Amino acid sequence: MTLLLLDTETGSAAESLYAAAGWTRYGIVPGYATDPSGVARDCSFLYKRLP
Known about the structure:
This is Acetyltransferase. It contains 1 helix and 3 strands. By secondary structure, it is an alpha+beta fold. A 3-stranded antiparallel sheet has the order 1-3-2, covered by helices on one side. The mean pLDDT is 96.
């Protein structure tokens, strides 16, 4: 493996954590997923290269 991909809610604490850990955001999809209450939320997609 040389590349990891993930997605998380845009603007969330998780997104900040991933950014601090060296992940790079490569896009946002509006309304991609719903939160536990059923509200559609934007989703950020991130990648990280492995050594």
